Amino acid sequence: MNVAIIGGGLSGLSTAAHLRLLSKKQNKPLPNITLFEAADRLGGVIHTETLTDNSGHTFVVDHGADMFATAPSAAIDLCEQLGVADQLLRPNPLGRGAMIARGNELIPIPEGFVLMRPTKLGSMLTTPLLSLSGKLRLLRERFVPRRADSVTDESVGSFVRRRLGNECLNNIVAPLVAGIYTADVDRLSMAATMKPIWDMETNDGSLAKATLRRIRTGEDSTEQASSGARYEKFRAFPNGMKQWTDTLADFVGRENIRLNTAVRSIVPRPNHRYQLNIETECSDQSSQEFDQVVVSTPAHVAANLLQSLSEEAASTLRSISFASTAIVVMAVRRDCISRLPATFGFVVPPRENRRVLAGSFASTKFPQRAPDDHVIVRAFVGGVLQPEILDRSDSEITEVVRTELGDLIGLDQTQPLEDITALVRVVRWNEAMPQYEVGHLDKVQRIQAAIDSLEGLHLNTNALGGVGIAPVIAASERTAERILK
């Protein structure tokens, strides 16, 4: 069986890896896999830069995700199957947690609060992030009626206002959710992005009752020791996340990967085969036939490839909106930050009207990433609510971020930036974050139904079913299973 995988990001690479693993597990012949990537490197939005300064100090800088979650288990399971799990780093046990900006202050997220669910009542009652009325409103959550059975979806903003109150939404939940999805909480779908919490209301009637049940059964032991993110459930590679894509590429076989090779069209052939029309970097054109084709490209590329095969799939894919972001990465001398938080990062509520959406301290999470006298700071800008900042030049964005980091963490404003940093990078990810807005699951069903009617064709993209490394790998495993069934 000849299998083509279009796209060399995490979706494509992990699909190829799972095809090899499942073939061996099921005692089936190994498919002939060819992976096509239009760019000159693999990984898509996953990329790592390793730099050495004039003093011989090494900095490991991730341009996208810098770690992955162990729950759901798809990513860690794949690491174990590839024999690399023992290489993984755990985040530094000191400093786990996050903070929320208020004015020029950073206030700790209440201990035990995870996204929108408090598991420790005491910390919620003492946090300065909520007023007395906001705390009383939070306590009333257990008495708020559950939604009507006829309601199949709702925005995150509507859900949190209804159950926890407007103050909890604006001061805590909105910045946490925006830090993950770069989204507008009043458009983001609960059913598509927060299904476990959505189901808690369905099954238990309230988040408070669901939390009490989970505490009694021990399910919330990790959450109770967390603040915003459950950092002990994350892992990273010593040399950055590019090490992960390199591991996958080596396992798949570099000889099966064609870089600088774009698939321009997919043409159906007899017996449910497909012809790929291919163009290389040198504009050489050719075609090749395959028994199975996996489209693992960004959604807009996938829509163009699918247009002639399924107008329904293509048009529905195009209806999914995307957000663009930029990450300003600085390796700053530690003595030039006067108020460096003890936590791994911070988020900024939209109501603060700042340009920085969130910040993280990569070398606090993983001290191996920088020498002790420097801190790797990553600041995020853009997203759905502030797309206009991305029209500015790299230097303009850097200056905006530098000024706001001066307010929030005491970054030195008196010296030239080049004198206090070992490196500065602006990494732009255009149209990279799919927005799972209310009604998204209906779109996914329409797209999947259209693709299912095309035997031998598969669509695997984060526009459908999961933002994050673990969900992408889980979807890739399901794709491999369908190919080998």
Summarize the structure.
With 485 residues, the protein is of the alpha/beta class. It has 19 helices and 21 strands.
Features:
alpha/beta; 36% helix; single chain; five-stranded parallel β-sheet; 485 residues
Mean residue pLDDT: 94
Number of helices, counting only DSSP H or I runs of 4 residues or more: 19
Overall outline: globular
Widest β-sheet, arrangement of strands: 7-6-17-18-19-16-20
| Distance between the ends | 12 Å
Q: Low-confidence spans: pLDDT under 50, at least 5 residues?
A: none
The percentage helix is 25-40%
Biggest sheet record: 7 strands, mixed
Structural class designation: alpha/beta
Radius of gyration: 23 Å
Tell me what portion of residues adopts beta-strand conformation: 15-25%
- Let me know the number of strands: 21
What does it look like?
- The chain has 485 residues and is an alpha/beta fold.
- It is built from 19 helices and 21 strands.
- The protein has helices spanning 10-25, 74-81, 121-126, 132-139, 156-163, 166-181, 190-193, 195-204, 207-217, 221-224, 242-252, 299-306, 311-318, 362-365, 394-409, 417-420, 440-452, 462-465, 469-484; strands spanning 2-6, 32-36, 48-52, 58-62, 68-69, 98-102, 105-108, 113-114, 117-118, 234-235, 257-258, 261-269, 273-280, 285-290, 292-295, 322-333, 345-347, 356-361, 374-382, 421-434, 457-459.
- It has a 7-stranded mixed beta sheet with strand order 7-6-17-18-19-16-20.
- A hairpin with a 2-residue loop joins strand 6 and strand 7.
- 47% of the residues are buried.
